[in-house]
Give the backbone structure.
Amino acid sequence: MKVVDEDEIFFTRARLFILDIPYPLVFPFGYVPSRISRKQSGILEPSFTYQDQQRRGIGLQNLGWFQYFNDYVTGQASLDIFTSGTFYVNSRLNYRRTDRYNGSVELGYSRDQGLEPTDPGFVTNIQRNLAVNHSQTLNPYSSISANINLRTADFYNRNSYDYEDRAQVSTTSRIAYNFNHPEGAYSFNVSGSGTQDFSTDATTITGPSVNFSLRRITPFQRTGPARRESWYETLSVQYSNRLESRYSFRPVDETDIGFFEALFNPSRHRQATGDIRHINMGLRQTARADMQLVSSTVANIGTNLSINEYWYPETYREEWDPEQNRVVPRMESGFATGRDFQTGLSLNTTIYGLSEARIGRFEGFRHTMRPSISFSYRPDFSDDFWGYYREVQVNQAGDTRKYSIFQGGIVQGPAAGEQRSLGLSLSNVLETKEVRRDSTGERSERVVRLIDRFNLSTSYNFAAESFNLSNLTTSISSSFFQNLNLNANATFSFYALDDDGNLIDRYIWKDSNQFMRMVNFSFAASTRFSSGGRNGRGRFEQPHWHYPEHYDPLDQSRFHPIDEAIYHGQVERVDVPWSMSLSFNYRWRRGPGTGSTRSAVINAQSIQFRLTPEWQVGTSLGYDFIDKELTPSRFNITRNLHCWDLSFQWNPFGDFKFFLFRLSVRDSQLHGLFQKLPGLNNLERSSSPINRFR
């Protein structure tokens, strides 16, 4: 070994030892920087993997190099290679400037091949990926962000080990700019996004989307010493607008026209999609006024008025074509506006119910009820008076129907149908007082919520021609039991079904003893268990005895953990720290007709057992009670090898079976050389194929 300027160490004929076991490979020479804590470039830690798929086989993953450029920029390049000839190449550049900007650029390329080139089923599959992330604070009041994801359809399915990635069938990119006025007078943001659905070949480009919002103002509020406000002083006004534009490309079957070509050619777009609307664009302005008419300890009464205005560069039209014997839609160019409004009145109060009943250590109960009644009114904007709806013939008999000239508009438009709706809702909270006494008789109290939330709501529309009464929605949640969260939601209908399972305008209690009928139900429970084991030391109390000359070796009663006649030392108790997250989800929903769908899944996540100070076992398991099969599960085992960690990860189920072996450095100083760079503003190298795209 030779040390140069206390900065570099050169060595020859070195051998690696793991748990005092010599590694079979001897290094003839090598170099190690003496100042390991300093930021360094270096190799990545590879993983040995086996995938139970014909196209992959055995391989090494994450073979590569990490490059430290400076305190703000790092990069890495890695290679996965398999015995089938399949390989995956990835390169990533990270950058960060504290409190100013940060981001990354990632490129991925994979080439999958199975079988032999001479086999008739030989196929080569190439996948690509480009991911760009950037976030920057321009000043204390404005910022920009970008998240660009461009990839081929099967990139995650071929190269990711994560269930969430492999289940994705679309990719989304987004760019946004945000500005907030220094004094909070208004906010402004501009954004654009693009989404590609690989299952349908649909592409949607949204943007520019511009949102502007003024701070809520109270024009009649007076300043001065604290006093009771007059009703007119509670008037508050708020204004906002939203400009939206969207291009949607959903091709019909057997078309060879791409979305980029159709984007700049309306006729080609209609030919490829059958959609008469090329680029959907519109602006919506909203002004809202609220006022508190009565505010007291008994009840609160408020009123509100909301006005919307819609701007469109073109409108929707329908015409009856007698030659084709059908309705033909078209778009008519020309600026058009529409307006609607809605007003309402609300009353809410709080009612308390008290009980001095005592059950065990619980003394007294308080039931808090918050009922609310609201009434809203909106005129029928399909009336000819407003001019937003047209009539069109729909058959040769001359029957007609109405349609909106803003139909399909991106910011919607005035709605049809008068609304005179009475809304009812009730919120409930149930609390009690838990009383405990210690050994000295000192009393301690704490308030406990038995029910955190129990809500009910429904409404009745007096102007509707049918189905006036809406569904009753209910929800309840409780965290009364320690480390256990319970949530349930249910929706009920007051209307009956016909023999085919279709909803009819007839109350269910007129034909049966039921008051309402359940439409859907969901229940969720989650908890987390953990144990730190026993910290103290114990001693097994065993009598002094000896084995007899003749004994039955199957008689386990004669065996004891410790024979104190032989061992006189102190015995440690078994210490097995463990933790587990457990969740159960059940969903039921009535489908169309007489059918229904349901699901019931239990998931045991993040199960960790430390069997010994050196061995740790973890897994994530799940079971679907409806399909009677295991959900995607994964197992991992880690062995502490003093300066090293040996890990084994295994996915035995599904169509993507694999296992991974990985040997990584554990020592804190060596870890800085091989795995992580301390003090580098989180610009770390990634050495595991798990979560590689997160």
Notes: Helices lie at 155-159, 163-166, 259-263, 266-273, 668-674. The first helix runs from residue 155 to 159. The radius of gyration is 35 Å.
